[in-house]
Amino acid sequence: MKTINLITSFKCLSVGLLFSGAAALAADKNPPVKFIKEGVWRGEFTVAETKVPFNFELKGRDAEHAVFTLINGSRRDNFHVKQIGKDSVFIKMNTYDAALVAKVQEDGTLTGEYRSLVPGFRGNSLPFTAEYGKTYRFVEPGKDVAPTANLTGKWELKVYSKDQVPNKIAVLKQTGNTLTGVIMQVTGDSRELEGTVQGDEFELSGFTGPSPKIYKGKINADGTLSGEIGSGIYDNTKFDAVKDDKAELPDPYKLTYLKEGYKKLDFTFPDLNGKPVSLSDDKYKGKVTIIEIVGTWCPNCTDQTVFLSPWFNKNHNRGVEAIAIGFEQKDSLEYAKYTLGKLKEKYNIQYDIVFGGLADKKLVSQKLPALNKFVAFPTTIIIDRKGDVREIYTGYTGTVTGKYYQDYEKKFNKLLDELIAEPVPASAANVTGNDNKELKGK
Predict the structure, then answer these.
(1) Domain for residue 386, yes or no?
(2) Do 297 and 386 fall into the same domain?
(3) Following DSSP, what letter does each residue of 322-341 receive, concatenated?
(4) Same structural domain for residues 124 and 184?
(5) DSSP bridge partners of 44
(6) CB of 3 within 8 A of CB of 11?
(7) 90: Cβ–Cβ under 8 A, 6 or more apart, which residues?
(8) Quick one: residue 174, left, alpha or beta (phi over 0 = left, psi -120 to 50 = alpha)?
(9) How far is Cα 195 from Cα 73, in angstroms, rounded to an integer?
(10) What is the CATH number of the domain that holds 308?
(11) Contact 189, 398 (CB under 8 A)
């Protein structure tokens, strides 16, 4: 009996070991899915030899329910997360053709890279790491150094570059060691920046989806600033800054204008289905028409779209049309159909979108020869009911610029109200397909 029991016990043990070994082997072949831990994180990009910090928050325990939020001062930008492996995630930067690709390590940290997805630029990337639970940006709590100055106010930045670069203006606010603000230039603004002042040194960074940026430098003995701008995947430039509450950028309403002898704008570009669209089409006759020259790679263009799309949807039936001319990072209608299509979908764009070609300022000038020059993406051109150009605005100042944005919005609405109220030309009143009530702005 003892021998039989011993044999039985041995068989049971062998079977148990066999099943446990098979289970271990199966577990090795099918490791559990690792996902980003819910909560606040601190990341760091490596740009050349510079560390560029950023903060984000993850809500949701799996990719299906997760929302990835970039944090910059009071600004929040949300993105979807895709699981691409047992321990890896892919976070597309919404309408920008770039993504964060990251791996969840054994210790819970993230390692990865910010990667360009543009065909022909896919070698461009920035490595980053991220740690869970760290809410600070530049300096750990308890390690602050008393600032030697308060940088609150308006600063004029003189930028040094091999190419001629217009001056910039920084509007900063400092509370203790905390520094926030925005950098403005003729093309638009930097979006909200967040940073710190430590002793006689300052740093500001921003990452909202497009390439991360960092502004850092030193407070000089005479109260001026000297520093460097790090522009993500691209390049770095030096600057000096002087505090000047009266500093202003060139007038954005006077930078771009029609050449002498021109009153109208003329173009024909394909829409996203390849159908030619022209201002001479019946659809635009007798209508107030807004032309936006944009690119999906351009953050200020996105912000302008966030402003224009809901405005258009609200005012379209007053006799207004709009056309967005997209110039993209690849000279391909098929590629533009993808990028501009994403823009259209995300921001509920109900006006026409056409493809202008490669994102190049000289090319824009060639394709729109009535313009004296093309200065910046975005550029807004407003055309009256007679088809005459009434205003051209270079760049865009977003909500973070405060009074600058409020002044722009007020002037935009005032001009549009005036143009909508103007009479419809007799030549357009009976155009087939035009609704007279729309034309008259009722």
Answers:
(1) yes
(2) yes
(3) EEEEEEESSS-HHHHHHHHH
(4) no
(5) 53, 129
(6) no
(7) 81, 82, 83, 84, 99, 100, 101
(8) beta
(9) 9
(10) 3.40.30.10
(11) yes
Classify each residue of 351-370 as buried b or exposed e, where b means 16 or more C-beta atoms within 10 Å of its C-beta.
bbbbbbbebeeeebbebbeb
Domain final position from 132, 167, 192: 132
How many domains are contained in the chain?
A: 3
pLDDT at 10: 34
What are the tens digits of pLDDT across the range 85-122? 999 999 999 999 999 999 999 999 999 999 999 988 75
- Beta carbons within 8 Å of 69's beta carbon, 6+ residues apart: 56, 57, 58, 59, 76, 77, 78, 79
Task: Tell me, yes or no, whether 402 lies in a domain.
Answer: yes
Residues 286, 372, single domain; the answer is: yes
**Domain with 323 in it:** 268-439
Which has the closest alpha carbon to 270: 356, 364, 367, 395? 356
Q: Rounded to two decimals, what is the model's pTM? A: 0.89
Query: How many Å apart are CA 305 and CA 378, to the nearest integer?
Result: 10
Looking up tokens 């691409």, which residue turns up? 84
Residues 157 and 98 in one domain: no
Q: Distance (Å, rounded) from C-alpha 206 to C-alpha 196?
A: 12
Backbone angles phi, psi at 17, to 5 degrees: -65, -40
Residue 9, pLDDT above cutoff 60: no
Same domain, 224 and 82: no
Radius of gyration of the chain (CA): 28
How far apart CA 165 and CA 36 sit, in angstroms, is: 41
User: What is the chain's percent helix, strand, coil content, to nearest 5?
Assistant: 25, 35, 40
d(CA 310, CA 298): 19
Task: Point out the domain boundary residue: 228, 243, 258.
Answer: 243
pLDDT of residue 123: 60
H helix or E strand, kind and range, residue 40: strand 39-47
Is residue 201, in this structure, part of any structural domain at all? yes
Could you count the other beta carbons within 10 Å of the beta carbon of residue 204?
Answer: 30
Each residue of 186-232: pLDDT tens digit? 999 999 999 999 999 999 999 999 989 999 999 999 999 999 998 75
Residues 318, 301: Cα–Cα separation, whole Å? 25
* 127 and 192, same domain (yes or no): no
- Distance from C-alpha of 290 to C-alpha of 299, rounded to nearest angstrom: 19
